[in-house]
Amino acid sequence: MNKTILLAGAAFTTICATPAWAEATAAPTPQPEADSAASAETADTTSGLQEIIVTAQARGQSLRTVPVSVSVVDSKAVQSKGLNRIDDIQYFVPNLKLTEVGITTSIFIRGIGSGENQGFEQSVGLYIDGVYYGRAKEVQAPFIDLDRIEVLRGPQSILFGKNSVAGALSITTARPTSTLKAGLSTSYEFNARDFTTEGHISGPLSDRIRVRGALRYRSSQGFDRNLATGRRNPALEEIGGRGTAEIDVTDTLTATAKVEISQFNRKGRTGETFVSDPIATGPFKGLTYGQILFNVFGQPDNVLDEKFDGRRAAIGETSRNRLETYSLGLDWKLGDYTLKSLSAFTRLKYYDNCDCDFTGANIFTAGFDERFDQTSQEIRLISPEYDKFDFILGAYYGHSDQQYADQIVVPNGSLLIGAINAQAPGFGNLIADTQAARTAHIVGDVYSAFAQTNIHVLPSVTVQLGGRYTYDRKRADRSLAILDINGADLSAAQFAAPLVYANLFGITSQNLANLGPVGAFFIGKLGQLPISGKFSTSRFSPDVKVRWEFAPRQMVYATWQRGYKSGGFDFRSNNKSISATLADSFQFRDEQATNYEVGGKFSLGRNVQLNVAAFLTKYKDLQVAIFDGILGYNVGNAAAAKVKGIEFDARWAVTPRLSISAAGAFTDFKFTNYPNGQCYFGQTPTTDLNGDGVADLCSYNGKPAQLVSKFEGTATVDYTMPVFTGYKLNAAADVSYKGRYDASPLYDPKAVQNAYAMVNLRLALSPDSENWQLALFAKNVTNKRPLTYGGAVPLAAGLFGSNSLTGIFAQGRQISVQARMKF
């Protein structure tokens, strides 16, 4: 099926004799060949600044003429700032967050992102060379041989597709060159013992064939100490490669074939307990959760480490991930028109083993296994830029198949067995060496057609009209069974184990149907399995922009646009939560956004560029995943939210040797109608869910989104001076500031991160030719370790009434050296 679609797309383009670059999102137009930022920056003859070229609107355009709030990180910045992972760019791009949330990674723009559920598609679209990557795990893949990263804020519905409701990250990789070139870069960071090397070679095989190959390897021992194993966490090993062939089939038809495969593995994680309050009442009064585990249940003394100190305790944590991409792009010149096609197939496979009680105690473990296949085909026709108008027309098809499984495992020897036996003799033995094994499967198809046109109503005024019609359909099923630890049916002696899982963990299972009236009681309370569902939606997303260049190199714009993110199915809820039935809670609705934006881009004199944007975005049916306080995450649609703010960035070429840049964002995010939020430990409920006169949940009305600061900003000073004869020394310093924010999705006041600033320094020596460079980096000089995620420790509150929080903290000070060579 996948090969058929790929071949059909290529054949369609060839038969129609029309150029195509099928992409799951906006396809970049061909750029001048370059090994670094040359394709993103060109010399500006009227200013001391470099002109930044972006492809946010599927054409190569100057950043200062594009009516979009966009930031660019080119390959030169990636190297000069020592960026090792895609999440490093968040410290240099305001209103962008990439953070681990529990067992995955999420992207947030302007406070909007997707939470922790494998059924989610991402609110921020990730696109690499036009191919859409919609799974959270794909963000963790190593980036290889980049040309630039464009961060587009606000809904990007027309050229980037349905799910880019908050914005998009568009990554463009380096293209093959017509002359032989090669490069090698190696770095070593001393604290985490992080070694990275990357190399590429590019050149012609003939007059019509150009190829490029790139390899990257990274190994890191980690920066936190695991008290249970004596090792550092997280230990990483990444290896990836990409091969690209660019073939001039005819004088008007160019084919680009790419294969990229990455393997990224880790041992251990970064989370650690940082809050554990003594219990106020009951048999464990005065004890913290760790003290209960140590004093009462005889667990190792590492459970007593309950404060943030760069140490944690966990056993057997691993993550094995593989991402494959195969794509074929066709670019056909039809006179002044261009037809592009991009056919792509991606496959993500991973297995995670998590010590998900987040302590060093023997309680339970969890495994997560997923395979996600995606096939896509896009055709777009790009007109020339006429005096009065230009346009882009396109159509897109995508097919996805996701198979997911997870297991909650209670091994023999788990303290849960003794704890349950103490309250109900014999019942603990029922769950020894058992597991709650969940499976889910979802198949989706999306069809869309889109158009965008620029109408030049006056020489200085352009009206841009765009629209995208999308038909989306999905079908899914989910099951959960209580099995023995090897995956076999339960023995007769443990036949009643599902009742313990239901009562203790709130986990429903299909086994309950065989357990008589008691099983029926829990089915009524928690929901019935297995379940299945399907849905289809049709939506039109409009986009209107007006751009006025009121003076040379001075532009203002206004935007109105709507976007949406597809609904889906909840893979990981353990019960029906607040819904009437489990089938009702299984499906969640589309997320919708309406955005209003005004902005301007101004060249001030010869050496200063200022960009500013003000926005107001209203969201309806926001998709959120909330920890249920025990072991599960429940997905729902928050009724409404509103986010408004101002973003700016400025560049100043003070002299040919000295440059200064700054960027910032003021953001005001509020949930406007969200009464059914989970309460944090000890919070008094305010929402009566079922009308019985007893409040069950807590209102989030007026609350900001997780990780949103009122203000954040960054500033950089860069100075280059000649040293010796034929050499130069570059010195750079940058500071990144973030205001106070809530790190917990439950708004626990003990998981608030106060304002902080990170300072980075760099010193680099190179010859004037820049054929090689030696650099010294000091990142996060003041050793700040902000909290990026805070959540409740599973079972601590539910079983023992303890307020215990686990958190993920950013890496501290990093000292590294880097050597680069070009051939």
Automatic annotation (TrEMBL):
SUPFAM superfamilies (alphabetical)? Porins (SSF56935)
Q: Where in the cell is it found?
A: Cell outer membrane
Q: InterPro entries recorded for this chain?
A: Beta-barrel_TonB (IPR000531), Beta-barrel_TonB_sf (IPR036942), Plug_dom (IPR012910), TonB-dep_rcpt-like (IPR039426), TonB_rcpt_CS (IPR010917)
One Gene Ontology term from the biological process aspect of the record: iron ion transport
Q: Supply the Pfam families for this chain.
A: Plug, TonB_dep_Rec_b-barrel
Q: Pinpoint the TonB-dependent receptor plug domain residues.
A: 63-168
Where, by residue number, is the motif TonB C-terminal box?
A: 806-823
Annotated Gene Ontology cellular component terms: cell outer membrane
Q: Where is the TonB-dependent receptor-like beta-barrel domain?
A: 284-781
Tell me which family the UniProt entry assigns to this protein.
Answer: Belongs to the TonB-dependent receptor family.
By what name is this protein known?
A: TonB-dependent receptor
